[in-house]
Amino acid sequence: MGPIARRYFVMNAFDGVMTAMGIVLGGAIAIGNPLAIFKAGFGASLAIMVSGFWGAFMTERAERTAQIRSLERQLLRDLNGSYIEKDAKNKIIELAIIDAISPFLGAIIPLFPFLLAHIGTLQYKTAILVSVSLSLSCLFLLGVYLSRIMKENFVKTGLIFAAGGIFIAILAMLFEGFF
């Protein structure tokens, strides 16, 4: 289960960070209200968490049920209540939780500066910069994590991941120019 869990964690944390970054940059351009940006991002974080759990649960359930049915045909016996079936059910839940939590965490971290801006701890423009910095840092760290698995240069892989966030920022700036 390790490689599957790792893939779910990295892919979905990446999606969460990128989603939050899009909300932050779009909100900074269109809204200008730190609490509204936080609420929009938090709502999206909850949605991506529920989506992650539901999608992974149903997908993993289908895949693992198919594997058990195939194994039952090969063994010519029912595996209901067996260790194999119980283990598969546990893995379904574990993977669905990883799939749910990782994008939520990835999305919520860049949103906290806007909560701080709302309560007056940070200036609004500072919150934007801190949020983008947190986003790029999270993306970089996800790349570093993968570089350890691949035994590659962590700076290179981290920068490749962070480039996704930089690309979102460029698109947001271009988007602002259209309106």
Question: Which ranges are low-confidence, i.e. pLDDT below 50, for 5 or more consecutive residues?
Answer: none
**Helix-strand pattern, N to C?**
HHHHHH
| CA-based shape | elongated
- The count of domains is 1
Instruction: List how many beta strands DSSP finds.
Output: 0
Structural class: mainly alpha
Q: For the record, give the distance between the C-alpha atoms at the N and C termini, rounded to a whole number.
A: 47 Å
The number of distinct helices, counting runs of at least 4 residues, comes to: 6
Instruction: Indicate the radius of gyration in whole angstroms.
Output: 20 Å
Mean pLDDT: 90
Biggest beta sheet summary: none
Helix content: over 70%
Our estimate of the beta-strand percent is: under 5%
